[in-house]
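I am still getting used to backbone structure tokens and would like to learn alongside you. To get us started, please write out a protein record for me. Once you have written the record down, we can walk along the chain together.
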Amino acid sequence: MSATGSNTPANHFGGSFGPNEWLVDEMYERFLADPNSVDASWGEFFSDYTPNSNNSINSNGKVIPTLDNAPKGGNPPLPKKVADPATLQVPVAATQVSPTATPVAPIATPVAQATPVAQATPVASTRTPADPIVKPIPTLVSPGASTLEPIRGVSARVVQSMEASLTVPTATSVRAVPAKLMIDNRTVINNHLKRSRGGKVSFTHIIGYAMISAIRQMPEMNAFFGELEGKPAIGKPEHINLGIAIDLAKPDGSRQLLVPSIKGCEELDFGQFWASYEETVRKARGGSLTVEDFAGTTVSLTNPGTIGTVHSVPRLVQGQGLILGVGAMDYPAEFHGANEDTLAELGISKVITLTSTYDHRIIQGAQSGDFLKRIHELLLGENGFYDEIFAALRIPYVPIRWVVDMRATKDDQVNKTARVQQLIQAY
């Protein structure tokens, strides 16, 4: 590997396996229990391996809450202006009785001029008001030490990897790509494989190979950030080692992520890339990955679109400069209510969203945008992309080409019908 001012080791993962460190820990525990229970390559690696110790202080010097310094549980104090609900006295309103009005004196003798009668004083109400409704003060339970659970093992390694990824200043470019041509050519490919040697090509295979082809055209995307004598430097790997994110379901129902890499992708044609990809996935699912499968990853590919994620901004781990995220393949949301005939008449294609998350210290936004543009062009068949795939798989057909839809006008349809009728009448 050549490096422009980089003293990083050849595998340039800096002793860290990123999201794969949980697997390293499990293999190390097996090695300590029985050195013969692991592969020879793992045994050689663990002969001088020292696991990283977990600290309660992060890289910024801030203390991470633990079970010892977590706030203790208990009831919070009552508000200052509210008394203890157990001793709270509810005052009962006293009955107020107003003095009885003075009776009006009777008129003794009629007189010539009427004497005005004094107005009686109204009698005050003697009703007793109801007692006010006093709601009990709720007792709040603060989160105490009993609600915190330590993160150990695999999950602890994921925490460390994610915190380390925060030190990488990243940016993300997004591009939507029509998937119609990829869908149709994949159908042709798999139909041929079904009739011949078997196997199945996925969309991830095609997109991954397009990613490799785009990096061949733009080798500056295959880089990583390093330091040389304490100064920033950029590393330029000799090969494109593509890490592929593989989701594994564990027996307890939890899920874990492995990111092994395919080495020297720039030297592989599509058939070789497809075989290497499938072999890596088989080893991951069978638990037979070695240290070399994780070392030296330069770029990564993740496809959360398989579970319906439309748009993803994945984390970029240290030692890599680029990760490509692939979204779900579907019609635009505004056309989900349209039927297939309308979609066909309007020429609406399914789309797939690609995101390029890159280290902004060594890759600029214009480069990332141009990188996605090249992948877009390749997936539309430019530069003989599908011809290369068909040739590598020995498919004796011409790939389907991308052309702009030409909508026939009403006059054209009438003329076509008239010519058909004329042809019928001629015979």
